[in-house]
Amino acid sequence: MNQQQYTAIPDTSDNQYWIRTLNSQDRSTTFVPRDKELHRLLKQNAKKLSQPASSYKKRAKKD
């Protein structure tokens, strides 16, 4: 398989990244990443990017 470099979690139409499973009982579709470790890393990177640029601690109010 040709290994593609991913920088973000791709759309579910990417069949090289996702495994599609169908449940006939409730007619639902579930998408599972083929490489769970890669998926975990991409989720971590996305979370870092969505956090504020500078982290700061709130100071306690002085009376």
From TrEMBL:
<feature type="region of interest" description="Disordered">
    <location>
        <begin position="44"/>
        <end position="63"/>
    </location>
</feature>
<protein>
    <submittedName>
        <fullName>Uncharacterized protein</fullName>
    </submittedName>
</protein>
